[in-house]
Design goal:
disordered N terminus; Metallo-beta-lactamase, Chain A; about 25% helix; alpha+beta
């Protein structure tokens, strides 16, 4: 059976980086092989090897939020690839500016501070490999957490907002549990039960399954 010409063709691969086992995600268009690196938290050599393995051309680096395990390799990768960094919301600027200091408190090396070439807000559009993603501001885990949703592919990049069976931790001084729950229930779940997501840690999930069984959200 032939594939309809209009069918979206996004592909993804996950590379686990840093001792936090963070999911750095490669997203690219199957036809053009052009795409983006999402949340390069560290281990840049490993990320570069994965880019070469899938044969993609990286157009940009995209960040979901400002925590060190998501942004720690962004500056180095930007320099090596000659691309720009987009996201997250500017409310996470202070986290990105202190990534090195925070990493040192965990005894981690090779983590660098990062900044963004384009801070993004809800209502704007992120384009990856020619595919448009809607942007949703979902604070709580961090003040500037963003979720990127591509409706044609029924797919979302959620960072640490929601996981399979859990949600992002909110016990930081700037955390807000109620805001996080509200964002998930009012912004993400209405998009549809069939939307699959790649999160910042752990396996992929689907909004419908989390709406029905996630103990933090039922």
């Amino acid at each position: 059976m032939s594939t309809p010409a209009h069918e979206p063709r996004l592909k993804a691969a996950v590379v686990q980086v840093t001792p936090f086992e963070q999911n750095c995600t490669l997203i690219w268009d199957e036809a053009t092989k052009r795409g983006a690196v999402i949340d390069p938290g560290g281990d840049v050599d490993r990320i570069e090897a994965a880019i070469a393995q899938v044969g993609m051309t990286v157009e940009k680096i995209v960040l979901t939020h400002g925590h060190l395990d998501h942004v720690g390799g962004a500056a180095e990768l930007k320099e090596k690839l000659g691309v720009k960094i987009e996201g997250p919301h500017i409310a996470d600027k202070f986290l990105m500016e202190n990534a090195e200091k925070q990493a040192a408190s965990y005894g981690l090396t090779g983590i660098r501070n990062a900044t963004s070439d384009r801070w993004m807000e809800e209502g704007e559009t992120l384009t990856i490999g020619g595919h448009d993603f809607e942007i949703f501001h979902c604070p709580g885990h961090s003040p500037g957490s963003l979720v990127y949703v591509n409706r044609p592919n029924r797919f979302a990049l959620v960072g640490d907002v929601i996981f399979r069976g859990s949600i992002g931790r909110t016990d930081f001084p700037y955390g807000d549990h109620d805001a996080l729950i509200n964002a998930i229930k009012t912004k993400l779940f209405p998009l549809g039960d069939d939307i699959a997501f790649i999160c910042g840690h752990g396996p992929m999930g689907q909004f419908g399954m989390e709406r029905q069984s996630n103990p933090f959200l039922v």
